[in-house]
Write a structure and sequence with these properties.
The complex is a heterodimer of chains A (about 150) and B (about 100).
Chain A: E1 6-15, H1 20-32, H2 39-60, E2 67-75, E3 79-86, H3 94-97, H4 113-120, E4 123-129, E5 133-141, H5 145-150
Antiparallel strand pairs in A: 1-2, 2-3, 3-5, 4-5
Helix pairs in contact in A: 1-2, 2-4
Chain B: E1 2-8, E2 12-21, H1 23-40, E3 44-55, H2 57-73, E4 76-80, H3 84-93
Parallel strand pairs in B: 2-3, 3-4
Antiparallel strand pairs in B: 1-2
Helix pairs in contact in B: 1-2
The chains are: A alpha+beta (about 150), B alpha/beta (about 100).
The complex binds adenosine-5'-diphosphate (ADP) and magnesium ion (MG).
Adenosine-5'-diphosphate binds next to helix 2 and helix 4 of chain A.
Chain lengths: ~150, ~100
């Protein structure tokens, strides 16, 4: 398989205050926009980032203050990869956590965050160590405009 | 941005929600919506989503929580005018089967 070249990259870190959820969405939107995504593609990415960042704030750091790291890369074939990392409590059983409706949160959490990420992105991979933290890697290919017009 | 009453009659209470619904904004929205419901105790609560610009699963939790509350109080709940992209995540969640999405 051909390895595609990384043509742009960004790193972002911010503290786990919940008003940074919209900041993370806006930043990722601005970065991804250079690929000229459709509004649907952009919404999928924004929503998935919002889910992962919310999980860092609500679960990993459990409303305490920690740092959230985002790394995003754009590849020459139109693929975008986004890594969202925390140094929080970690997840004991990742498979169980990723099951739809599973939640350790209160009554106002739906347990659908990972399900949304999996459905809205092409690929989602989660690595987690209890007491050390969690990394969520998400990938999505943005269809090039010329191909979009053919549809 | 936020939560406000659009109309309030004996028949129903129509509440407008505007802006982004995420984990940050939803707790404030929840408190406001619930206080309106408890204050007026209408027959029907209509949540107008026409001004919701973005929503993640925190919005699903918000709707589900209000559904449980209104059901307990014997009140009918409706969610109306969600834009396509907001509708998509509502439909994805399966809460459409509750029959509240109009
Ligand atoms: N970054 C994280 N750190 C620790 N636990 C997490 C993290 N992300 C997810 N989880 C765990 O996985 C569960 C499921 O997450 P999710 O599907 O987003 O649903 P929800 O956030 O509504 O609970 C959470 O309730 C939590 O227990
Ligand atoms: Mg979540």
């Amino acid at each position: 398989m051909k390895k595609y070249e990384c043509i742009n990259e960004m790193d972002l870190s911010f503290i786990s205050k919940s008003n940074n959820e919209s900041f993370a969405r806006a930043t990722i939107s601005a970065f991804v926009s250079q690929l000229d995504p459709t509004i649907d593609e952009l919404t999928d990415i924004k929503t998935s980032v919002s889910e992962a960042v919310t999980n860092c704030i609500a679960h990993a750091y459990n409303e305490q203050i920690g740092i959230i790291y985002i790394n995003a890369k754009i590849f020459s074939n139109g693929k975008i990869s986004i890594k969202i990392r925390d140094k929080g409590v970690g997840i004991d059983d990742v498979d169980q956590a990723m099951e739809p409706l599973f939640t350790t949160g209160g009554s106002d959490r739906s347990g659908l965050g990972f399900a949304v990420m999996k459905s809205f992105m092409d690929r989602v991979k989660v690595k987690s160590y209890v007491g050390k933290g969690t990394t969520v890697l998400m990938e999505k290919s943005i269809i090039r405009r010329s191909n979009k017009n053919e549809k | 941005m936020g939560v406000s009453i659009l109309s309030n009659s004996k028949e129903g209470l129509k509440i407008s929600i505007s802006g982004d619904i995420d984990h940050h904004s939803s707790s404030d929205m929840r408190i406001k919506i619930d206080s309106f419901i408890e204050k007026y105790h209408p027959k029907i609560v209509i949540l107008d989503f026409s001004s919701v610009s973005f929503m993640d699963t925190s919005g699903i939790g918000l709707i589900l929580g209000r559904f449980k509350l209104t059901e307990r109080m014997g009140i009918k709940l409706e969610v109306v005018n969600a834009r396509n992209r907001v509708k998509r995540i509502i439909e994805f969640s399966g809460i459409k089967s509750l029959g509240i999405l109009k």
